[in-house]
Amino acid sequence: QVLLVESGGGLVQAGESLRLSCAASGSIRSILAMGWHRQTPGNQRELVAAISSGGSTNYADSVKGRFTISRDNAKNAVYLQMDSLKPEDTAVYYCNAVQAIPTYMGGGQRNYWGQGTQVTVSS
In the beta sheet, which residues pair with residue 19? Predict the structure, then answer.
């Protein structure tokens, strides 16, 4: 099991910045990628940004140029620097980790999620 704990959400005004942090603990071997997703009421959870164990990144088009994801493998942590925030960025942000399952246990991947942190951007 992997436990993910997020922090850093809050209420800011449009144009301001926030930094989200996510710390992983537990059985943290073979984590392939970590990332951030967000969800608003009535909508599906969507990918915001992800980073692989090798450092490759992927961003949603809506946040490119404004958000930066980074990872500290030594601390088993992932961060999301959010600049130039907009009201449409308002959502609950969830940390995600994708872990490889050993072949002797059937192989494949397993997803883990944090409890979520609220980000509210006022206009």
Answer: 81
